[in-house]
Amino acid sequence: MPMPSRGPAPSRLPAMAIRIAPIAGILILWEIAALSGIWPRQVLVPLEQVGATLLALASDGELARHLSASLYRLASGFLVGSVIGVSTGAAMALSRNVHRLLWPTFSCVRQVPVIAFIPLLILFFDVEDSFKIVVVAMASFFPSALATHDAVRDIPESHREVARLYRMPTAPFLVRLILPATVPQVLTGLRLGLTRGWLSLVAAELLAADSGLGQMMEMGRQLFQIDVVLAGVFVTGLIGFLLDNSMVRVERHLSRWRTA
Amino acid sequence: MTDHRPLRGPATDKAARRTGAVRISGLSKRYAMGGKAMTVLDDINLSIRPGEFVSIVGPSGCGKSTLLRLIVGLDTDYDGEIRLDDTRVAGTGLERGLVFQDHRLFPWMTVAKNVEVALLNQKLPRDRRERVISEHLALVGLSDFGDAYPHQLSGGMAQRAAIARALANEPKVLALDEPLGALDALTRVKVQAELQRIWMEAGTTMIMVTHDVDEALFLGDRVVVMSPRPGRIARIVDVDLPHPRDRASPLLHRLKDEILAELTREPREDDGTLVTFPGRPRG
Fold first, then answer.
1. Chain A interface, mutation test: which of B76, B120, B121, B163, most A Cβ atoms within 10 Å?
2. So where are chain B's domains?
3. To which H or E segment does residue B32 belong?
4. pLDDT of residue B87
5. Nearest residue of B to residue A260, measured between CA atoms
6. Are B79 and B29 in contact (CB under 8 A)?
7. Of A174, A189, B257, B261, which has the maximum CB count within 10 A?
8. Which fold does the domain A48-258 belong to in CATH?
């Protein structure tokens, strides 16, 4: 079924303007402050210089190198973390024994920011890729596991009774009932996990890396090239935004049955 | 009168039903509510013939829905005995179906897929499975709606889809828990007629709980009248009228008055009299 379009077409342009207004406002204030000379130009870099640096980084392949390193780590870490997260969450919700065994530990460890584990993880894993993949996996594990656990628990008893009544075997019970009933909530968890993974990855790269967006920013800081740091900030925000946005689209597509 | 079976459609004659007899004996059900034992059902005895349509009416709290849940095995904690064709009921089974008050179709599945849910426990070849689904959609008049989603159906259609799902694995007994309770009056009358036709075609033993005395009488070979707190069978009314029935039948109207009198008489007597004599003959 076609989704009803939100509002008539003519209002598209003003709507877009409203969405962009806050960020445009920040950029304008920034530019004014940078030109005013309150802070030295090396500290508060004018926008055009950040733009030029970004272009330079993009054209000589430097940005692409860092970005692909980061995205590779994000993708592998997220894949591992979300798969383990979703299965752990489902297992905790479906089996009382698994719940008893894992839930207290899960609830405690969940409260510790992943970044706090970084010093420890550096000692155990190779400083380059594998350490960062583990960080991303851990960061995305918790939101996915928690969302899946809650989603499965939230399946109404009335649905479960139908399954009992028709003696649905385990495989179809999982594939036809548990999975579709939990898709919307699980996807929200995955989306959160992806964001957490991305944030933790950039943080980890700031602390220890040879490549990656975070490392690029850290190098910029050490060399007092604030324009490079800011270019990194822009790209980090943009990538995060695009990832989140695509997850929202997937979420909306797979939860169509909810729009009754 | 002799016990002549009501007129039935050809499908039933072919089946010559010998199975689908339900015998409930000495059935009691208690809940613990805040440390206090509550008796929901007290010494229920009821024998249902194969292929019979039994309606159960009674005020809220008489345990009629609980009785159905016990029969289909969603609740297994009770005293006494429920037997289906000499087998003691223990847990759910495909030979006993239930239609809930809300249709309980899965919203993410098409109507056909929802009907298929009932068939997943059996290893049927795909083409046979498809045929069973389309036969049962045809039975409830939803042949054109197999690909529709539940939210695209009206209340009556959704409930018919639920009936198709419940009948798909040809249960010997189908329990119906106020299946038409959520429908508007006009749709209700239509689906009642549908249900009568479906029952005559399928020949399944049906036990229907309802609040609606007209509905109970229109469909039931017998109407079980229950009284509340604790839930007991107050009376069983035989409706000696062949199917398909005419709503205008004077017999139905007379029986309705009797049942309504029974339903409204009960509380006053229970609350007003301190001493009641069990087994006292009734006027």
1. B120
2. 18-95+173-269, 106-170
3. strand B22-33
4. 85
5. B151
6. yes
7. A189
8. MetI-like fold (1.10.3720)
